[in-house]
Amino acid sequence: MGTMIDLLGSLIFGGALMMIILSAHDTARENQSVYCNDMIVQQSLTGVVRMVEGELRNMGSGCLSGDTVIVLVADSNKFSFRADLNHDGIPDTITYWTGPTTELLETQNEMDRKLYRHFGSGAGGNSVTDVVALVTQFHLDYENKYKDPMGPTPIPSNQLRLVNVVVVTVEVQSPFAPYRQKGTVQTGQRDAWYSSSLWQQTRLVSQNLNR
């Protein structure tokens, strides 16, 4: 009888130990996946920020005529402006906007969408449209030279000359992520460990607009 009890106790102890090991392995795998996704998201956001920040700070460059309209479209998720980015003396047209989430049904993250950039060259009329990143948020607000908020968006065409400050908010999340373990998802939580990084520039103003 004692031998049977010892054997049964060993089986119970071994089973419990195996469950602990498997749980620890799953946790370590989740943590490693989340860490890798965090790095990828940070790198992606850095690339978007450098491009958007650099170009918006140069909007209006090369537009020597005071009659040139610099800001062409000012909406909550679309912004179009003129700047001579290729330094040929002719203003180019640059536009940023986001597409709908339905364009990315093949990804796991239901919130991600494409961030588009269109460049229209002033010389020769060449134009290129690219997807520069996947984002979950690309939101734009606007202020006049007195730092008063402008709105609602889109800003009417007869007020575009008053835009002096662009407030940009960008969020990037991982398009794929490990699912949470069953039974651990609380009310209001998403079912996967999506990595997220948010950037906001509240004083992204071009000196070329201060004319």
Quick structural gist:
By secondary structure, this protein is of the alpha+beta class. It has 1 helix and 9 strands; from the N terminus they run αβββββββββ.
Your description of this structure?
The protein is of the alpha+beta class. It has one domain. It has one helix at residues 2-57, and strands spanning 71-74, 78-83, 92-98, 113-120, 127-135, 137-143, 149-150, 165-173, 196-204. The longest helix is centred in the N-terminal third of the chain and has 56 residues, at 2-57.
Structural topology:
Blueprint: H1 2-57, E1 71-74, E2 78-83, E3 92-98, E4 113-120, E5 127-135, E6 137-143, E7 149-150, E8 165-173, E9 196-204
Element order: H for helix, E for strand: HEEEEEEEEE
**How many helical elements?**
1
Largest sheet, spatial ordering of strands: 1-2-3-4-5
Task: Give the DSSP E fraction (strand runs of 2 or more residues).
Answer: 25-35%
Q: Which blocks of ≥5 consecutive residues have pLDDT under 50? A: 21-25
Quote the average pLDDT. Answer: 82
Based on Cα principal axes, name the global outline: elongated
Largest sheet: 5 strands, antiparallel
Secondary structure category: alpha+beta
Radius of gyration using CA atoms only:
26 Å
Number of self-contained structural domains: 1
Proportion in helices: 25-40%
